[in-house]
Specification:
Blueprint (H helix, E strand, L loop, with lengths): L6 E4 L3 H12 L4 E4 L11 E5 L2 E4 L10 H6 L9 E4 L1 E5 L5 E5 L2 H11 L1 H25 L11 H15 L3 H12 L2 H6 L5 H8 L15 H9 L2 E2 L2 E2 L2 E4 L4 H13 L3 E3 L4 E7 L2 E7 L4 E3 L3 E3 L3 H9 L6 H9 L6 E8 L18 E4 L3 H12 L8 E5 L1 H4 L9 E8 L11 H16 L5 H4 E7 L1 H8 L35 E3 L13 H14 L1
Parallel strand pairs: 1-2, 1-15, 2-11, 6-17, 15-21
Antiparallel strand pairs: 3-4, 5-10, 6-7, 8-9, 12-13, 13-14, 16-19, 16-20, 17-18, 18-19
Length: 526
């Protein structure tokens, strides 16, 4: 059978679409195969209830790499990101902590809680900006293999060493501390306001079965701090039309470059012969051939399900089995008859056009983690909340609203498993906790959708529902992601590549793994 394509991409999530677009722009014939009826994977928008559109899974934009936006001309294909300009943390005593994009307003608010924290905040921001600048180049490079003596790898290691040496002693030490400390311990050295430390440290636990006092979470905080919109670090936004519009824009750029995108095309297995991937077999029985197969699925699904152990070295299979997923995040999507009224800041103010964080103290977050540690969901969970319809009124009917709640912890490995009853019980815990801060919530609630890690695995196909295709922990990052010696998007099977979030530099709606994988494929094919 002749090859109809130069490359087959398995999975129409945003990384698969990015990889396909870059390959097609270089003149390759590419097809993307997506098992669902729509592209986007976890970056999808759906009208869950009549008139109410939700970003069902991922819901904010910040990590999407500016070079991808530029190279693929995504605004021309419909991408429009609206900024989230504040974060409100309601407190149990009826007070609140607000963080604003306006520097002077933010400083006044911090000073209301602590003059010391107001003074420290600018210095902290400058250091995190420097650390983000220092780490940013890693997001744009394929990780070198420190175990290889190949000249190309040695040269890449040399460049990496020079870059780190160029940081200077003080910044290098700061980066080392960020890489090894817990978010809570790191922030304790800077601030005294509990709500500030908790809301900041929450960035270190997102998507991870770890608490704010767990070592290594300070780096995850930095990972999220690298959010960048229009060249501004720590800028978060909401895509007009929901996160599905991000995927739709990338798909539009891919199609414009000549990519064929097929939905409801489930791949049953990768065809392997004589140690080489030669194509894929679909669940329908159809076979497609190409000299390169690029998997956007997570590492476990790619190697243990689509390829099969018999085609892989035993030590590689063991390493993939050891790769940790442990999804711990859930989404609760609400359709509301009116705006929520927060007791700490009543009325429809600008605080409802930003994020709302239920993270009153580090102890609150740690107690939520304690329950997950022993296989139970958090009865008083951490929540990151946005009201997309306040920014994009088209998401809901006139006068009504949608609320997106990211909640932790909801461990995939729940005692007794996730049943319909346990899903609804977790939804109740989220609503009951939030209603303590917004007392009118239950009276304005029209519909709710609760999405657990088990639902994410079932619907989107991500193992254990981990939103990053595998935990973002130090032992699973850079040249260790997903497996040492196989972190440059290559695999032990010739012609088979990886491009998903289970590869460097990890998860979030970033697109970097897809872009870097495509660049490596093009480099090798040249």
């Amino acid at each position: 059978m002749a090859n109809a394509y130069d490359a087959i991409v398995i999975g129409g999530g945003h990384n698969g679409l990015v990889a396909a677009a870059y390959l097609a722009r270089a003149g390759r014939r590419v097809v993307v195969l997506e098992r669902r009826e729509r592209v986007g994977g976890a970056a999808a928008s759906e009208e869950v209830f009549p008139g109410f559109t939700f970003s069902v899974f991922s819901y904010v934009v910040s990590l999407l790499r500016p070079e991808i936006i530029r190279d693929l001309e995504l605004p021309r294909h419909g991408l429009h990101v609206l900024p989230l300009e504040s974060t409100l943390t309601p407190l149990p005593n009826g007070d609140y902590l607000a963080q604003w994009n306006d520097h002077d307003q933010n400083r006044r608010e911090l000073a209301r809680h602590s003059l010391r924290d107001a003074e420290a905040y600018d210095e902290f921001g400058r250091l995190m900006h420097l650390m983000s600048r220092a780490v940013k180049p890693f997001l744009g490079m394929a990780p070198p293999d420190p175990g290889s003596l190949a000249p190309r790898e040695l040269a890449a290691l040399g460049r990496l060493g020079r870059q780190l040496r160029g940081l200077g002693r003080e910044q290098f030490h700061a980066l080392h501390r960020l890489a090894t400390m817990s978010a809570a311990d790191y922030l304790d050295e800077w601030f005294e306001t509990e709500a500030l430390k908790a809301t900041k440290s929450a960035s270190g636990i997102i998507g991870t079965l770890a608490g704010p006092r767990s070592p290594g979470t300070a780096y995850v905080l930095l990972h999220h701090y690298m959010g960048e919109l229009d060249g501004v670090f720590r800028a978060w936004g909401f895509a007009k039309g929901g996160n599905g519009s991000v995927s739709a824009a990338i798909a539009g750029a891919a199609r414009a470059a000549g990519v064929e995108i097929r939905t409801q095309a489930q791949v049953a297995n990768v065809i392997v012969g004589n140690g080489r991937a030669t194509g894929v077999a679909l669940a329908s029985g159809e076979e497609l051939r190409a000299p390169r197969v690029v998997s956007n699925a997570d590492p476990r699904r790619t190697f243990l399900e689509l390829v099969g152990e018999r085609h892989l070295p035993a030590d590689f299979v063991q390493a993939i089995r050891a790769f940790r997923f442990r999804g711990a995040s859930a989404k609760v999507n609400l359709a509301l008859d009116a705006l929520p009224d927060f007791a700490c800041l009543p009325g429809a103010g600008p605080h409802l056009r930003g994020a709302i964080s239920i993270s009153p103290s580090v102890d609150y977050l740690e107690r939520a983690y304690d329950q997950a540690k022993y296989g139970e969901f958090s009865r008083r969970p951490y929540m990151d909340i946005v009201l997309p319809s306040m920014i994009d009124p088209g998401m809901a009917p006139p006068g009504k609203h949608v609320m997106s709640i990211f909640a932790q912890y909801a461990p995939y490995h729940l005692n007794g498993g996730w049943t319909d009853a346990r899903r609804e019980a977790f939804g109740d815990a989220v609503i009951d906790t939030l209603a303590e801060y917004a007392p009118n919530l239950k009276s304005i609630l029209l519909h709710r959708q609760v999405v657990t890690p088990a639902d994410i695995e079932r619907v989107v196909g991500i193992s254990e529902g981990n939103i990053f295709h595998g935990e973002l922990s130090l032992q699973q990052m850079f040249f260790l992601r997903p497996v040492p010696a196989w972190a440059k998007y290559r695999t032990p099977i010739a012609g088979l590549w990886q491009c998903g979030s289970g590869t460097h530099p990890g998860g979030g709606v970033m697109g970097a793994p897809g872009r870097l994988a495509a660049l490596e494929i093009l480099k090798e094919s040249r």
